[in-house]
Amino acid sequence: MAKPAVILVGADKGGVGKTTVARTLLDYFGAHQTPVRAFDTEHPRGTLKRFHPDVTDVVDVTAVPDQMKIFDTLGSAQAKVTVIDVRAGLLSSTLRALSDIGFIESARKGQITFAVFHILGPSIASLEEIAETAAMIGDANYFLVKNFINNTSFFDWDPATYNSYFKRIKGAEEIVVPHLSEMACEQVEVASAPFVTFVANKTAKGEAANYSFVLRGYVRHWLGNVWGEYDRVKLIDLVAPKAASDVRQQAAG
Amino acid sequence: MSFRQSVTIVASPRKRVGKTLLARLLVDFHLHENRAVAGFDLDAGDRSFARFLPGHVSTAAIGDIQEQMALFDRLVAADDVSKVVDLGAKSFDQFFEVAYRIGLAEEALHRSIAPALLFVLSPEPAAVEGYRMLRERFPNLALTPVHNELFGSLHQREAHPLLGAGTPVLRLPVLAPALRRYIEVPPFSFAEAWLADASDIPPAAHLELQRWLRRVYLEFRELDLRVLLADLSASIRLPR
After folding, report:
1. What is the pTM of this model?
2. Where do the domains of chain A lie, and which CATH numbers do they carry?
3. Which of A73, B36, B138, B211 is the most exposed place for a label (fewest CB within 10 A)?
4. Which chain A residue is nearest to residue B107, measuring alpha carbons?
5. By the CB < 8 Å criterion, does B152 face chain A?
6. Domain B5-237 CATH assignment equals 3.40.50
């Protein structure tokens, strides 16, 4: 039986595109027919839940009952992949809380697959966050995400300095989310639909829509590039090995 | 699938190879066949396509995303209106980069619109490279090379290394120099009614022009047939 997988998506700074990345992950797992559930910690009103209401619950990750809701059900939930969209600024404290409840240790023992998607901000302070976060995640799979969706420039970073932080974390992988036109982003926001639904020219309720073909095309192209990054780091193999094997068998057959 | 309408891009990365004339003829051909048609002038230079056929052609641009939406969303609109684009050399690279990213050909086919590309041949490396790129990037586009006979007969395929032995080429027959002056002043249409009313064209020239037009329209009908046959064979191949 596949072991449960937990993916934390977080940043210690707001506005870096954390929820956008979480949304691309939910679409990615959906496209790979991998059952996934999500927890949106933007309590009480979650942005992630607006786009993926059927698979997302809004929780207060600092509250014990909600911690039980997430972590006590990892093994029993139908969805073996859990994505947690951590409220901005709470990545470090969430990791400390996970350590306190023994989650990090369970991951270290191989009972759970644990991955952290750390969405980086453009300022030099982000580099220091990497060091702080890395110290807490143990053997988790650590993905440093540079999000260029809003044309963020990471010019503050001296490449040598960045590399020195990057290399401190064994097995860390970099993921690049490319730029997407502001107008396309805005239209998807207005539609309140998952990216794949928008691309398919459907409303959030699954009815036929009339979105701009150009904007749908740009979103499809962008999403393909993002998923290409997830393919490159073998994300499906990591969190759902059986699903990866099934997909390969289907492709070969 | 059977196509209700088409979108045809007339292109070359080179200037002054006959793109605009070809686009004009295509618009008039559609009208001759009683088909609704709309032209788009993407030649930022002289906008002659729009000046020749102001009732059927509008100017367009693709510099920013709003302009791209205004053009490309219209090109794939399932409105039973065929579209013809005169793609200026300056916009060649950007147009096809956008078309590739947003999946123009695939979207057109999805909406039962026949996407076609008329590429006017010339031997320069940029043109050869442009043709190669289009063939690779747009397998779903009916890519038809065009030879403008004003530049001489189509030599053996050495001048166009990417043309295979059986590649159908659309020929744009040369128009006698004496007749060219009648068609080079905008506005001008090749429609019968327009030509009939053109009192400045003497009867002999009128007859010659009609003969030339019939040869051009024959080439277009063969192109229509090829697109139809390609659609038919795809329908037969595809499992239902």
Report:
1. 0.90
2. 5-181 (3.40.50.300)
3. B211
4. A213
5. no
6. yes
